[in-house]
Amino acid sequence: xxxxxxxxxxxxxxxxxxxxxxxxxxxxxxxxxxxxxxxxxxxxxxxxxxxxxxxxxxxxxxxxxxxxxxxxxxxxxxxxxxxxxxxxxxxxxxxxxxxxxxxxxxxxxxxxxxxxxxxxxxxxxxxxxxxxxxxxxxxxxxxxxxxxxxxxxxxxxxxxxxxxxxxxxxxxxxxxxxxxxxxxxxxxxxxxxxxxxxxxxxxxxxxxxxxxxxxxxxxxxxxxxxxxxxxxxxxxxxxxxxxxxxxxxxxxxxxxxxxxxxxxxxxxxxxxxxxxxxxxxxxxxxxxxxxxxxxxxxxxxxxxxxxxxxxxxxxxxxxxxxxxxxxxxxxxxxxxxxxxxxxxxxxxxxxxxxxxxxxxxxxxxxxxxxxxxxxxxxxxxxxxxxxxxxxxxxxxxxxxxxxxxxxxxxxxxxxxxxxxxxxxxxxxxxxxxxxxxxxxxxxxxxxxxxxxxxxxxxxxxxxxxxxxxxxxxxxxxxxxxxxxxxxxxxxxxxxxxxxxxxxxxxxxxxxxxxxxxxxxxxxxx
Length: 525
Prior knowledge:
Blueprint: E1 5-10, E2 13-18, H1 19-36, H2 42-60, E3 66-67, H3 69-79, H4 116-124, H5 128-139, H6 144-155, H7 162-169, H8 171-184, H9 192-198, H10 204-249, E4 264-265, H11 269-273, H12 282-309, H13 316-341, E5 346-355, E6 362-367, E7 378-382, E8 387-392, E9 397-400, E10 403-408, E11 415-424, H14 427-435, E12 441-444, E13 447-450, E14 454-456, E15 466-473, E16 478-481, H15 483-493, E17 511-516, E18 519-522
Parallel strand pairs: 2-3, 6-13, 6-16, 10-15
Antiparallel strand pairs: 1-2, 4-7, 5-11, 7-8, 8-9, 9-14, 11-15, 12-13, 16-17, 17-18
Helix pairs in contact: 1-2, 1-3, 2-3, 4-5, 5-6, 7-8, 10-12, 12-13
């Protein structure tokens, strides 16, 4: 006689039953299951019988007592034996299955880490242990199995509902699986007796599953640490990028977040945009660019938070809406920029020149009109090429630094050439725009006065305009350049080592140079 007791869940109630009574009850419910499982509505009948048995047990011993062999036999005498139930053959019909398309899910009922192998095994009707072995072996080959498992973990949803499980197992397999559970254990599969009596059978598969479970816990902890680290990086990156964008382009703050650190000053680019495109289009470009830049950073922050706290959310619809919005903004921005970019399709150049009647032994190059004398407070510069744009919002004018080249002339004459370059929809349009650029210089004896800027005024839009001053001076001429004029050709040409002898660096203050065939050579005074 068995003296141990077993916990069972029957009809939604918890009972304690001794070993002998459990065997009789199991065989009785097995017979009931065999009697009704192929009958239409049989599962409901079985559930009704189990509920009636629970009521009888409650009336016999109550929930606190132990169900004995005598209690079970008394219950059978009340309900009757399975063969006593009258079942008409006309009621027996083959099971009717609805059509469900097979889909692969993760199986939460057969899960060691996430249920990936359990889902594959259910989908292919194969022991999932085989797939666990394959993943372990492939994980040893350059971590291939680990990354494949991780991708499947992310890509596959879990089968929670009955419909999802039918899609995973197939209709017939799923129904057979339910009947098999009832056949193997007439008690409900979620009961303690099911877990105790049938899930702990010894064998190689269970031993391997336990090993994989232990390894899986280690990998799970490592994965969580990995995701937390990357989640923190995602959040910090997204936050700093958005903060930098707002500080530079909204508040014009040129501090630690400014692009000055990258040899550029783009703080006032949104203001400059009004001088490149039509005023009606500029706000749209700014708004669309902000969305295109900030929206991915917000997504990065959100996914970083999810990786840190590992929470689930029904965010598929919102993610899809965000992706569609981002794509639409990129498309709209591309169309606007393409339409506006046609204005820069062609490039044209024009030039004027003047010859000095006499070339002095020492030629002075000084600054005429200076930028410091202008009423401007917004500057956009790309220091690498020395190209700087100054914005005068009051007069709606742009002032741009030209560049200066100093070359040796072929003869004994000194020549000044001013080259202008602009872009337009056509070459003729670009050539017309060069004529609208206003640059002034003057010659006073042995001194050439060069303005520090050229001007774009009126309704004329910026068209990638540039002005270059080329001085052709006889070799052997001494040249003295003041600091402001020297910066016009230092910024562009020093980095190219075109006009300096050796690697001599430009310094502030007036300097005296000798023009040689190799360039300018500094004369130490």
